[in-house]
Structures are given as C-alpha cells and as structure tokens.
Specification:
The chain has one domain. By secondary structure, it is mainly alpha-helical. Helix 1 runs antiparallel to helix 3 and helix 1 packs parallel to helix 4. It has five helices and no strands.
C-alpha cells in the first residue's frame, strides 16, 4: 500500500507542476482565470507569483497528508489514494486546458462550479 501512496503523492505533485507551468506560460491576463480567489491573487501579486505560491502550498499539503497516510490505517489510506487520483486527474485536465486552450469535460464542470461560487458570493 505504501508504494501506491508514494505513487499518488508523486502524481499529485507532478500534475500540479504541469498545471502551474501551463498557467505561467499560457495565462496572460488574470481575467482568464475562472477560480475567483486565484484571480484576485493574480490581480494583486501577479500570475507567476500566485501560481508558484499555490504550488508551494499544495506540495506542503500533499507531503503532510501523504506522510499521515503512510502511517495511518487502511481506511484513511484508501481515502487518500481515491482523493489523490481524482485530484490528479482534475489537475491534469486543467493543465491540458491551459496548454491547448480547449476546455474538456472536467474543466467545463469546474467552470460551472466557479460560476456558481461567483454568483453566490458575488466575487468579481
């Protein structure tokens, strides 16, 4: 089980790195970002700075939770593996969307979610 946990930790970090690199290279204006919180940060501190701060935070969380999963019972390990695989797929889909500038099934769902958040909290 530890092998699979380490594999998912690696997948999470690699797919987030792909997402960050594609964001830094392809996103030229914060208005393109659909995540309202990330967009606000991008406007305040810049696209690159925001992307790398998010990457650093994600790596810390992944390493912390992965370390906990390695020492936990099977139930938490299965949760970590399942959640990690789903999140890796979402991060890869976002990176793919950034690189190709073509939305995909997952990014369309995320966009609908972000629009709902915007309408509920009136975030611009």
């Amino acid at each position: 089980m530890n092998f699979f946990i380490c594999l998912v930790i690696s997948l999470l970090i690699i797919t987030k790195l792909m997402d960050v690199l594609s964001t830094v290279v392809r996103i030229k204006h914060p208005q393109i970002e659909t995540n309202p919180l990330a967009r606000k940060m991008m406007i305040k501190i810049g696209i690159k700075t925001t992307a790398w701060i998010v990457f650093g935070i994600v790596v810390l969380i992944v390493l912390l939770m992965g370390g906990i999963a390695l020492r936990s019972e099977v139930g938490f390990q299965i949760f970590f593996l399942s959640f990690g695989i789903v999140l890796s797929v979402m991060q890869f889909a976002d990176a793919h969307n950034n690189w190709t500038m073509q939305s995909n099934f997952i990014t369309r769902l995320v966009l609908m979610y972000h629009r709902k958040i915007n309408s509920v909290f009136r975030i611009t």
